[in-house]
Amino acid sequence: MCRRYLILSSRVVRPGHPYRLSVNVLDNRQPVVVRAALFRDSVRLSGVQRECAENSMNLLEIPVPSNSGPGRYRLHVEGNEPDQLEGSLFRNQTELRFEARSLTMLVQMDSPVYRQLQTVRFRVVLLGTDLKSFKSSADVRLLDPNGIIMKRWPSLQSNTGLVSAEYPLGDRPVEGSWKVRVTARGQTEEQPFLVEVYQPPKFEVLVETPALLRTSDPALHVTVTADYSSGGGAVSGQLTLLAEAAPLHRHVGWRAKQVVLETIHSVRFSGRHQTSVPMSQLLQLLQPLDGSEVKVTAQLVDDQLQVTGQGHSATRVYGDTIQLKFLGGPSQVFRAHMPFRAHLVAHMTDGSRLSPERLVRHRLDVQPELVFRDGKRFKMSKRRAQMSPNHPGVWEVEVVLYEERDFNQRMDHVRYLRLSASLKDYRGKTARAEAVAAAVHTPSNLHLHLATSTHFPKVGEYLVLHVRCNFFIDHFRYVVFSKGILLDHGLVKMKAPLHTFPIPVTPQMAPEATVLIFHLTPYGQVVSDTLRFPVSGLSRNNFTVSVARTTHPNQPRFGVEVSVKGRQGATVGLAAFQSHLYQVAAGTDVSSFKLMRAMQKFDHSASSGEFAHQWTTDDGLPGPTVHLASHRTAFGFNETLE
């Protein structure tokens, strides 16, 4: 009999994607014939057979039809000696989960809201798990708020993964939330948008204020413009400015205090007015202003029509304070016998990045404290965290217990590690954060540790991995997963207690993948570690887009010239938005961040404990993102595989 074997595979079955499993046959002196089959509702879909040698890793692929549907899926694996009966060495079967999601479908609208007699234009982006275009047909439907199909585009074919369509609205459309529904390969995605019946007023009053304001700013700048809707020019009349403030997290029934800022008569107001409200005057509305929203309302009485119109704008006010947090959350897990790395990120209260001036002269100290099982505490030496040269505003600190003097005998009694961080900038502003890492112990105290020195893994390059062990092993094995699919595996010779080896980064790994290393001891214990790392799959086909303004001598209007430079045969999709509609950030556009988040939905555990953070810009829009490699230390090998 084959005494030991280890088979790793995914729990998820996706239509159109081959189901892979890694077969490890151990302690068998002759080849083993391994048969694997995939069943749905007791019906055999497909299978594969392979002859596996001793102490080798074999990757088996079972094709899954693209038209597979929901059902009860099972994986049946058996090992046989050559020319022997079925299951003569081992036999095993496990339940699998079917997921129809096999594509990334994004719907891009040219506007988040439409009115009567406008044309709804949208584009559908279809991508596979390898970030390549889906070259097949898709069914598109347009539904009104009552669920009635207003327009149907059946079997839209595309060879570039882009499908565009449009629908003109009538003079009396149904108001409410409409939907664009896309169906491809049994998967359905929806994108909502608003349709409203808009009756233009006699004139419009537009109030412009900054999206964000800090308490350290001297004043709030307000700009008011008023124009006739018919194109009759600027409006003159009596203008009254009102202001009110309320906390962002206010209880139901909150009544804000409203005061008159300024009253301007028709002699001074003729279509445009700019003013500044001092911060001292805003403090009369609400104290403190940190974490509040200031609303400025403009009321205008037209001199000619004697009609009153108004407009408003809201600004969020935040204090000039810093917030500090640990990536991965305040609760983490670590191995006492291995190095432990923690990452911290700092941001302002409004979510924006710290200015370069604040980071020129700063200090971030971390105080580690150990708590033992008997309740005793031990404060380790305070250490200064170093800011990452690749990510300003991100720090890394490492704690290595076995390097502490006279501490090797007590590592098995550590209960948890408490990290207290304190940041101080050149202005004297401080921020604090704490995290607690629970210690993981094993009966044999055998551990593997996996880390990487590659800061920006990109498709087409290599990921450099470093494996550390605290016991002697001749080799270890690894597998690579992404989006619930087993992509690669291998066996690596361990030539030193700290061994380095590379793996190629493929498009199937984007936007993030997980590497699992493991070793099977002679006593049957599986020692393992995992590392989840981000993959940049959007930098393969670099291209540039430049926009220039052009004028024609015979035409009074100017034109816009768009120039695209890239690889021959590449497809570049362009979209133009009105600036005020784009700043709404309603989620109807397509961005790299939205694409990465959509692809992360393939992995249900992608958001748990990830080392990721996104800042905001000064205008309150989504800003840059940092995504670092992270460990998933679990209490046992079975939990690691979950």
Describe this structure in words.
The longest helix has 9 residues, at 592-600. This protein has 642 residues and is mainly β. It contains 5 helices and 46 strands. The protein folds into 4 domains: 4-98, Sandwich (Immunoglobulin-like); 203-318, Immunoglobulin-like (Sandwich), CATH 2.60.40; 321-441, Immunoglobulin-like, CATH 2.60.40; 444-540 and 575-642, Immunoglobulin-like. A hairpin with a 5-residue loop joins strand 44 (611-616) and strand 45 (622-628). The chain is globular and about 100 Å long. The strands form 12 sheets. Strands 26, 28, 29, 30, 33 and 34 form a 6-stranded mixed β-sheet that branches. Strands 2-8-7-4-5 form a 5-stranded mixed β-sheet, with no helix packed on it. Strands 10-16-15-12-13 form a 5-stranded mixed β-sheet, with no helix packed on it. The model has no long low-confidence stretch (mean pLDDT 86). One of its GO terms (molecular function) is endopeptidase inhibitor activity. InterPro entries: A2M/Complement_sys, A2M_N_BRD, MG2, MG3.
